[in-house]
Write a structure and sequence with these properties.
The structure is a single chain. This protein is of the alpha/beta class. The chain folds into two domains: about 240 residues, Type I PLP-dependent aspartate aminotransferase-like (Major domain) (Aspartate Aminotransferase, domain 2); about 130 residues, Aspartate Aminotransferase, domain 1, CATH 3.90.1150. About 40% of the residues lie in helices and about 15% in strands. It has 13 helices and 13 strands. The strands form three sheets. Strands 1-9-8-5-4-2-3 form a seven-stranded mixed beta sheet, with helices on both faces. Strands 7-6-11 form a three-stranded antiparallel beta sheet, with no helix packed on it. Strands 10-12-13 form a three-stranded antiparallel beta sheet. The two termini are about 15 Å apart. Bound molecules: pyridoxal-5'-phosphate (PLP). The site of pyridoxal-5'-phosphate has 14 residues, from helix 3 and helix 4. Pyridoxal-5'-phosphate (PLP) binds next to helix 3 and helix 4.
Length: about 400
């Protein structure tokens, strides 16, 4: 154990302007379904260069709405990246579809498009590609597969606001792109999310499913002086309050500077770990820019799993908040109980066995980062020598 201050792997930054923006809404007329929702949607759409953005109350809701608006349902298959948070796959299960897990590329740790292509059947309806740790997946070939087989391309970019693929912002490329504003993400609304989409038709469908399947909202009925509304589909209450959208707007204003700092931290980690035995970092292809939500490293070697366990404990004992992202989704009990077995995605399983996420957030100081680097290198030496 250490007396040094704890370094979290990620956390929110809340400034006075954030507090003031929330207080202003609390003192106003609209706590929800008011003007801040549209303002946040407009600012976010501009940021990711998407034609449409729909704000919701979580990244999970964003993924579920994308499934609904894409018309995914019973009898459909959805190909999902195996190295991700469970929500990426659960969204397909919510709508009654069958999840088919795709493996990852062993260098970039994002979905392997050649495996995706081999998994397409006449029941496939959609692909969920995940920008793992903030690194854009290879959207060009994925778009080609989607177009060739008339599939919907859904991108889980909960790690990737501000990331760029071949000169285009993530959020402006896939049919639907989902973002999360959970406190460890780039910007926060406490809980919250956003779906961006390319067409007006999909935008309307997302808005309808967001609010019970009712096509008009309370404010538009107020404006047109009518009490009439019609439920046209089975939707949900996935609305996000104005209170938290106000926070989202002020947070988004700081995203550029925060992203620069994340990139600086990533460069320093990359330089420090180059050539360190038993350690690999995520490869980001030259045609894309990561948003570095996480900084994952992979411990490699014959005893990677046991080395990872000992490095994890050592760093935690030293007050360094390392984490692991992620156990392949189908290895969770819920999916195992439904017949998914180990061995489905060998690369995801191999990479997972050595994964470790290091502290990565804009508030991490240079001296804290030095502490993390030093501690990791020492812990690796110890683990390699089999010391407790
Ligand atoms: C890749 C990925 N997808 C989806 C989600 C779900 O987002 P939320 O927690 O906002 O529902 C997360 C959040 O952890 C995530 O990391």
């Amino acid at each position: 154990m250490t007396s040094e201050p704890f370094i979290p792997y990620g956390r929110q930054i809340i400034d006075d302007d954030d507090l003031q923006a929330v207080a202003d809404v609390l003192q106003g007329d609209w706590l929800t379904t008011g003007p801040k929702v549209g303002e946040f949607e407009k600012a976010f759409a501009e940021y990711v260069e998407a034609p449409h953005a729909v704000a919701v109350n979580s990244g999970t809701a964003a993924l579920h709405l994308a499934m609904l608006a894409a018309g995914v349902g019973e009898g459909d298959e959805v190909i999902v990246s195996s190295l991700t948070f469970v929500a990426s796959a659960n969204a397909a299960v919510y709508v009654g579809a069958t999840v088919v897990f795709a493996d990852i590329d062993p260098r970039t740790w994002t979905i392997d498009h050649t495996h995706v292509r081999s998994l397409v059947t006449d029941r496939t309806k959609a692909i969920v590609a995940v920008d793992y740790a903030g690194a854009p997946c290879d959207l060009g070939p994925l778009r080609d597969i989607a177009d060739e087989f008339a599939l919907v391309l859904i991108e889980d970019a909960c790690h990737a606001p501000g990331a760029v693929y071949q000169g285009r912002r993530i959020g402006s490329i896939a049919d639907f792109t989902a973002f999360s504003f959970h406190p460890v993400k780039h910007i926060t609304t406490g809980e919250g999310g956003m779906v961006t989409t390319l067409t007006g038709e999909h935008d309307r469908a997302l808005r309808t499913f967001r609010s019970h399947g009712i096509a008009t909202d309370f404010r538009s009925r107020e404006a047109s002086g009518t009490w009439e509304y019609d439920q046209v589909a089975l939707g949900y209450n996935y609305r996000i309050p104005d209170i938290t959208c106000a926070l989202g707007i002020t947070q988004l204003g700081k995203q550029g500077a925060w992203l620069d700092r994340r990139r600086q931290i990533a460069v320093a980690y990359g330089e420090a770990f180059a050539g360190v035995p038993n350690l690999e970092t995520q490869h980001v292809e030259d045609d894309r820019t990561s948003a570095w939500h996480l900084y994952p490293v992979r411990i490699i070697g014959e005893n990677a799993a046991s080395m990872r366990a000992s490095v994890f404990s050592e760093l935690r004992d030293q007050g360094i908040g390392v984490n692991v992202h992620y156990r392949p989704v189908y290895e969770h009990s819920y999916y195992r109980d439904r017949g998914y077995e180990s061995g489905l995605c060998p690369n995801a399983e191999a990479v997972y066995s050595g994964l470790l996420s290091l502290p990565m957030w804009p508030g991490l100081t240079d001296s804290e980062q030095d502490r993390v680097i030093h501690a990791l290198i020492q812990a690796l030496v110890k683990a390699r020598n089999g010391q407790p």
